[in-house]
Amino acid sequence: MDKEQKSCGSCGESDCSAKKQAPDESTQDFLDRQALHRRMCQVQHKILVLSGKGGVGKSTVAVNMAMSLAMAGKKVGLLDVDVHGPSIPKLLGLEDYRPAIVDESITPILFDNKIKVMSLGFFLPKKDDAVIWRGPLKMSLIKQFLRDVEWGKLDYLVIDSPPGTGDEPLSVAQLVGDASGAVIVTTPQDLAIADVRRSVTFCRQVGVRVLGVIENMSGFVCPTCGTRFDIFKSGGGERMAREMGVPFLGRIPLDPGVVTTSDSGEPFCRKFAGTETAVAFAEAIKPILSLSAEKEAAVRLT
């Protein structure tokens, strides 16, 4: 095989890394890398959704971000790489769905004719099955989801990662290579904020741009009397973002409707569009929507 000439055929860029086999790379690894690159070349923006700790509503935010992007007219994919706690199927009411495999490609589940969805949860025989895997198996699965799922042409692929800075987010950052950035979800209290700082540091160490911080569960307004209660405090995410020098994308209120719609498998921002919480999600994705304009401007300058 001619290492200089063989191309994956996915683009015309002369400096594309997938055109050449690395000196220490086996032929099979090279072909796998080309296949992954060919698939990911069709996705304009890959967005990681991270959190420093569990329990901050990261997956709920990822679902509503993806839905908000779809409602803005974008072609969207949602990939759940939380191997040990895949919750996207439950949040979208897709627990009983099973992907088809056609011509060695995995067909993603289509939600609401708008969002292409993939998760390990679709492949578990039982909902309560535990996945006990070490790092290499996790990386292999994530690679397969990026390489073998028929994502097609997407404007955005939202990747819901498990809490922390372990194998899964690291594998995604390494495999995707050109992620457009990460959105970090936190709650306002000090314990969550301390862990988010580590997520920001993680992004900087692996070369992923921090698109911003979302402060979830930020204040509760009593539906009866209208009084606001800062159950988990408020403003901690914004202060941390300012101190760390990263953008702040906004506050998502603590809304009982989010719990209800999540349990029923329906994105809140679709069912209750126009409410304060849905508007907060729409505002939070504005910098993400502007990525397309940034990319177009960069292309014009080259």
Automatic annotation (TrEMBL):
Gene Ontology MF annotations: ATP binding; ATP hydrolysis activity; ATP-dependent FeS chaperone activity; iron-sulfur cluster binding; metal ion binding
GO biological process: iron-sulfur cluster assembly
Keyword Lipid biosynthesis: no
Residues that, per the record, bind ATP: 52-59
Region (Disordered) residue spans: 1-28
One cellular component term from this protein's GO annotations in UniProt: cytosol
InterPro entries: Mrp-like_CS (IPR000808), Mrp/NBP35_ATP-bd (IPR019591), P-loop_NTPase (IPR027417), YlxH/NBP35 (IPR033756)
Keywords from the UniProt entry: ATP-binding, Hydrolase, Iron, Iron-sulfur, Metal-binding, Nucleotide-binding
Keyword Transmembrane helix assigned: no
Role, per record: Binds and transfers iron-sulfur (Fe-S) clusters to target apoproteins. Can hydrolyze ATP.
PANTHER family assigned: CYTOSOLIC FE-S CLUSTER ASSEMBLY FACTOR NUBP2, NUCLEOTIDE-BINDING PROTEIN NBP35 YEAST -RELATED
Subunit structure: Homodimer.
Family named by the database record: Belongs to the Mrp/NBP35 ATP-binding proteins family.
Name under which the protein is recorded: Iron-sulfur cluster carrier protein
